[in-house]
Amino acid sequence: MVDLHIITSDDWPLWRDVRVAALTDAPHAFKARLADWHGGGQEQWRARLAIPGSYNVVALRESRPVGMVRGIPGDSGTSELRSLWVSPEARGDGVGDQLIEAVTMWALRSGSTTLKLAVIPGNESATALYRRHGFITTEELGDLLPDGVTREQVMAKRLR
Hints:
The chain is α+β, with helices and mostly antiparallel strands. It is 32% helix and 34% strand.
């Protein structure tokens, strides 16, 4: 059984621990690098969680964090799903599905008509998960990755 816990800026130590675990476990899956956050103090972590209208969730199993996700409000009816990660011991148990569904419901409640995300090219397991949830590849150019050549792949789904 997994419980989803909505995180506030006061929960920054939990968010920090889960984010560091994600960046350590799967550095290939994120644009951000552990070094970007390693020296980050309380203010840096609180600021990340204090984005107005954001939705930050940690999945807990027996009080242990096993996943995370963020929803970020955008413009023109578009919200973003970011930072999805599931710990190795919880993969295949539907935790990713629950986290995606939580952000989808948040985006709908927020009045969004589109939910988009960016995935690192080659992350086939993430791409397959997103496709199962109705996301399709777009022609939008994603952010440039640290190699200076490759771009994130943008995916989106209509909510209404």
